[in-house]
Specification:
- The structure is a homodimer.
- Chain A is of the alpha/beta class.
- Chain A folds into two domains: 170 residues, 3-Layer(aba) Sandwich (Rossmann fold); 121 residues, Rossmann fold (3-Layer(aba) Sandwich), CATH 3.40.50.
- Helix content of chain A is 48%, strand content 18%.
- Chain A contains ten helices and ten strands.
- In chain A, the strands form two sheets. Chain A has a six-stranded parallel β-sheet, sandwiched between helices. A four-stranded parallel β-sheet of chain A has the order 7-6-8-9, with helices on both faces.
- In chain A, helix 3 runs parallel beside helix 4, helix 5 packs parallel to helix 6 and helix 7 crosses helix 8.
- The first copy, chain A, is elongated.
- At the A-B interface, helix 2, helix 10 and strand 10 of A face helix 2, helix 10 and strand 10 of B.
């Protein structure tokens, strides 16, 4: 073969390759993912799991292209939606809205263009907009923790409880917890807000320790607050507190569970990885026509030493 | 390189390859899928979609091995579970139980061995056994059809309704339908059982036609029964019936929707492909640690000419 022929063939091949490449790109189903930036532990986990889902889904399904955008505020997320839809045809949008109020209108506009809408965690003001809704079960977070605690304490004892930020999420957790405790002889000595903040939880636990000479157990409601609670207990030198439990399945707390920690032997998940569930399900709809329109309510089973590995992500920030 | 060295190297390579092959096989996560055999249209669809899911998931996730078993009876399904668990370690079981009563005990035994349990469509007697439950929404099947019909008829007219086999599924569909119709001026002239059977639906519709000189619309409750209803209407030569609607998203009926049929312009899905959703979600748990424990309630949005393609499987028997 002479050089000219080879070059000509090479050009043809490259042109063919280019055409195939362009076609493949064009044929790909674009799933846009819009989430808050990593402003605190839990959203840090959301970003980590969304990035993992992008890699895994693109490797598994060559017909799917995931486009991921993180936004540091509700206003920025509204702009991100405009950018995402202006530049390309989006088959589906998976969104964890910064706030329900500010994002409902913009998501409704995306929907009007024929895009499949998957909403995660915080609902929109108008649920009719979503095709798929993936949410955690905060009542189960409270109830499953309370059932475990009641069993360990033999249905008796005196406990203190910390609340998060006044929201529906916090109300549901407390409701699930107190409904179970009300059916026992366990007494809740005190219950105050510490805003899902580790430092505020530390201060509040110091107050509780000063006020109550005997405490059998603490429910910190959330793993971030649990770390503050544990610090306060340690500094106090108090040894009668048999259990200090949180919730959310934070990595540091799952490590305690895996190490058979006697004071924190369990956690309950409200996992940031739920973004991954939403992305996998949306991909299943578009890759395999698997029906996913509807509602997913994720349970909050106890995380124990036996199953902790399933909930543990050593590389995740949360 | 001499021949002896090359042969030796080749042997080493093959041995290494063999070891890797065996390890890969051993490392695969086995998801067993147990479903009824294709004894009628809907279960035929279940088998088709489970087979598709097996191919798609195994191609996408090399770490997952799907083992599919179909059973012609509840007793056979119990034996199939014994075989599946006796011969291998099963990480997860996806099951559409033949009957709740007969399968609850056997599935509980599989669960006791540490297997993740995904239940589809018909629940077990004890819901605590399942990790994930995927179900359709029969109330929505009835309600969404009724809302469409009420709007098309302007909230007025006289209709007849067919019921299926006396079951919770049938009760829910009828409840969803009648609750909407009760809020209109539409009168239900008659409502009788035809057992989800095409021939019985044909006979019942002949009775309705003989009994009522004017009928504005028919709700057949199910697409199999709808085919019998349409045959009876055609044979009668009656032309005043403006709508005859079913439910379930059968292929033949979706073809009518796609062809803009004036009498059957919509359907509602209760799709056998929900088995696929369950298999994809279980795979997401084991391939990507995406949390899926909980409940999925699939919606029943109207299938219209605009979206019919998403619900259409030309190669499926259903």
């Amino acid at each position: 073969m002479n050089t000219i022929t080879r070059t000509a063939l090479l050009s043809v091949s490259l042109a063919a390759l280019g055409a195939t490449g362009a076609m493949a790109q064009e044929d790909k189903t674009v799933i846009a993912v819009s989430i808050p930036a990593a402003t605190h532990g839990w959203t840090g986990g959301v970003v980590y799991h969304a990035e993992q889902a992008e890699q895994e889904i693109e490797a598994a399904f060559p017909d799917i292209d995931i486009v991921l955008k993180t936004s540091p505020s509700a206003t920025a997320q509204v702009s991100a939606l405009e950018d995402l839809t202006a530049s390309q045809d989006i088959a589906a949008l998976v969104i964890l809205p910064f706030t329900s109020e500010e994002l409902t209108g913009p998501v409704e506009q995306v929907k009007a263009g024929g895009t499949f809408i998957t909403v995660v965690d915080r609902g929109l003001t108008d649920p009719a907009i979503q095709d798929l809704y993936v949410a955690g079960n905060n009542i189960a977070v409270g109830a499953n923790t309370a059932e475990y605690l009641a069993e360990q304490l033999g249905g008796e004892g005196e406990i203190v409880v910390l609340r998060g930020i006044p929201t529906v999420i916090d109300d549901e957790r407390i409701q699930g917890f107190t409904e179970v405790i009300d059916g026992t002889n366990i007494k809740i000595l005190d219950i105050q807000y510490a805003n899902w903040n580790q430092d505020e939880a530390f201060t509040l636990m110091q107050d509780y320790l000063a006020k109550y000479p005997h405490i059998d157990a603490v429910w910190a409601n959330d793993d971030d607050m649990l770390l503050g609670v544990l610090e306060a207990i340690e500094q106090s030198g108090r040894t009668e507190i048999r259990y200090a439990l949180g919730g959310n399945g934070m990595k540091d707390v799952i490590e305690m569970v895996m190490a058979n920690d006697p004071v924190t032997p369990v956690s309950t998940p409200y996992p940031p990885s739920m973004i991954k569930t939403a992305i996998y399900m949306t991909a299943a709809q578009f890759h395999g026509q698997a029906p996913v329109r509807g509602t997913v309510l994720l349970d909050a089973p106890l995380i124990t030493p036996e199953n902790a590995e399933q909930f543990y992500f050593p590389d995740s920030p949360f």
